[in-house]
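Friendly challenge for the regulars: who can give me the structure tokens for this chain first? No prize, just bragging rights.
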Amino acid sequence: MFRGDPEHSGVYPAPGVPKFTRVKWKFHTRGQVISSPAIANGMVYVGSTDHNLYAIDLQNGTLKWKFESKSRITSSPAVSGGAVFFGSYDGNFYALDAMSGKVKWTFANPGERRFAAKHIHGLQPAGETMLDPFDVYLSSPAVWQGAIYFGSGDGNVYAVHADSGKLKWRFHTGDVVHASPAISGGKLFIGSWDTYFYALDAATGREIWRFKTGEDPDIHNQVGIQSSALIYGGLVYFGCRDSNFYALDANTGEKRWSFSNHGSWVVGSPTTKDGKVYFATSDSGLFHALDAKLGTPVFSLKLAWPMFSSPSIAGNVLYIGSGAGKLTAIDLVAQRTAWTFETDGFRENSAIYVKPDGSPNYETAFADDFYDDVVIGVGKMRTLGAILSSPVVADDVVYFGSTDGNLYALM
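First reply, four minutes later:
Bragging rights claimed.
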């Protein structure tokens, strides 16, 4: 499942790729691969904006089967009990047979949607309600004690029975829920675009506590929780578009500490190792390591490009993707970059959208602050093969998707 386990640790018991040697294989879809892969049954499962959920042979990268929904799939699948679970923008949540791809059941919500607001990000025309072009993910399911848990653009958090898809409970928030639920100690933890982070009883859906994050009523830029939570050592960690990274007491919701990112979002989920918590920022392009208990800085790396991808760890190496279409491997002991990999999209389009100093060439992509022009500009930047997918590590291979349409397997 997303981040490897219900607590969203992002830590994989594998040797990983301390030194990059080659591309083992790549599998091309006809859309962007924003979904993060899941590995089970000798296969890699991943969604694409071409509407398909793919099952790909783990060893050679060949197609085993695919299932076509009625819209794009940016939810990261979970595999459990012989089934693969995921959501689609068509408003359905699916359970497929993991070996054949045949539908076991579907669960329909009242209507999937993206976050929207007037004058969003300060764009024009100011009086018009606009869809957020950076709301790219659907909630990815968690599996726990015979139930499947996920959020929805209809504002609800759902729990459905894994064997039948019948509703177990729903909990309504005040806005879009595209973060993914984390589960620990019988509690479900999830944030909403309504500015609140929630702890719910996973068995009943009863609210245990909620925590208020920042508001931005004018341009709705510094508001909302896209980041999915990590549970570690009795604390719950998550990033927010109010530019803070939070650590809360998992039992009470009391804030233990917060770390300011000075206007830059934290969209990806954090990870931890050896008493440190790791996360990355959007516009400022920073990778941070903090003391997990105190929130004090340990080290930071300037990676220059926005990062929505969530970091993953295997051994002493952390892997994270960026909007530049690069996967960066960071040596956590040496506290420096170990190696980088460039996607096909980066190699094809970096001359247009990357400046000589390696920074983003936004001036070429964005013609104006009119909403339509910004949407077009975002699309241009994603031709770099942006890595919005989060890496998954199995044995000595790292798997991740790219907006150039490829699922990559690196050794």
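The longest strand covers residues 336-342. The CA atoms of residues 16 and 393 lie 6 Å apart. Your move, everyone else.
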